[in-house]
Specification:
338 residues; alpha/beta; CBS-domain; 2 domains; five-stranded parallel β-sheet; three-stranded mixed β-sheet
Length: 338
């Protein structure tokens, strides 16, 4: 029997449509499961949060196989958001790593079936030494479900795998549940962006959270002069400091205005050098605070409204309005901002 072949283009399009449909089915299956998980949360979630919040030690996250990979991610998320946590391989605990878990810690164990044999020794260890155990499973009647102090149940949702075997939906729910725990703990602790920066000093996240105070020029490097000083005496300060500007202050030290190289060029006249600085200064210059993010300060300098007068430096003032630093565009570029 001769089998008719589809035209190459039609065959390719049909295959592509089938592939896309499979991907959508997987995502919809797991997405539906997450919605069910959200509705499935009950008092046990609050009890788990209370238990971890009250812990004097760390949260020990553990799981076997795919659950173990998820557990590593959950431990990393918790650690980076203010809840000290680390992953312990359940099989290794039976060979000495049990000593990493002490009174004051809380164990967060995950197993969809609740019967992973590698968890059994660890479960018994927590029972023997009264270490709080939070279990994540879909089977409350399982060993993990029965032995845990608090059980976080996963709803009975089908795996996205057509054979119902490969951990897919269950691991997605477990990871999302870990995020829910970590973020709830974050909010409970009042963990701020400033705290987050401490744990993320490097990489793109660290850069995004960098503050002006971390790279601004201070002390003797700061170009400052009195608003009553003569222009002839202000120009050497501009030249010596090398930022193309000088911050002018009044008698109490608060900022009164700013003079730039451009201001001097715009006011060139025979009597310019004998004028007071305040006569040619910009009275309401753009400024920033030491706690402003560098990215925000860059946005001020790059504001399209200022294209007619390009801003390359911002004076940094404190709450009293006194100059405490200067941020130059070149400092931002050196720090990796563009």
């Amino acid at each position: 029997m001769k089998i008719a072949k589809l035209p190459e283009t039609a065959r390719t399009q049909a295959a592509a449509a089938e592939t896309i449909e499979t991907g959508r089915r997987v995502l919809k299956t797991e997405g539906d499961a997450l919605l069910q998980l959200a509705d499935f949360l009950n008092e046990s979630f609050d009890q788990a949060i209370e238990m971890m919040s009250a812990a004097e030690g760390r949260v020990i996250v553990t799981g076997m196989g795919k659950s173990g990979h998820v557990a590593r991610k959950i431990a990393a998320t918790m650690s980076s958001t203010g809840t000290p946590a680390f992953f312990v391989h359940p099989a290794e605990t039976s060979h000495g790593d049990m000593g990493m878990i002490v009174r004051g810690d809380v164990v967060l164990a995950m197993s969809n079936s609740g019967e992973a044999k590698e968890l059994l020794d660890l479960i018994e260890y927590t029972r023997r030494f009264a270490i709080p155990l939070i279990g994540v499973t879909s089977r409350p009647e399982s060993t993990l479900g029965q032995k845990s102090d608090v059980v976080l149940l996963l709803p009975p949702c089908p795996e996205a795998c057509p054979n119902g075997l490969a951990p897919t939906t269950s691991t997605t729910m477990t990871m999302a549940l870990g995020d829910a725990l970590a973020i709830t703990l974050l909010e409970r602790k009042g963990f701020s962006a400033k705290d987050f920066k401490i744990f993320h000093p490097g990489g793109k996240l660290g850069q995004q959270l960098m503050k002006v105070s971390e790279i601004m020029h201070t002390g003797d490097a700061l170009p400052v002069a009195s608003e009553t000083a003569l222009v002839r005496d202000v120009i050497p300060t501009i030249s010596a400091k090398g930022f193309g500007c000088v911050a002018l202050v009044n008698a109490d030290g608060t900022m009164a205005g700013l003079i730039t190289d451009g201001d001097i060029r715009r006011h060139l006249s025979k009597d310019l050098m004998d004028k007071q600085a305040k006569d040619i200064m910009t009275k309401t210059p753009k400024v920033t605070g030491p706690d402003m993010l560098v990215a925000e300060a860059m946005a001020v300098m790059n504001d399209m409204k200022n294209t007619f007068r390009k801003i390359t430096a911002l004076v940094v003032v404190d709450d009293a309005g006194k100059p405490v630093g200067l941020l130059h565009l070149h400092d931002c570029l050196r720090a990796g901002f563009a």
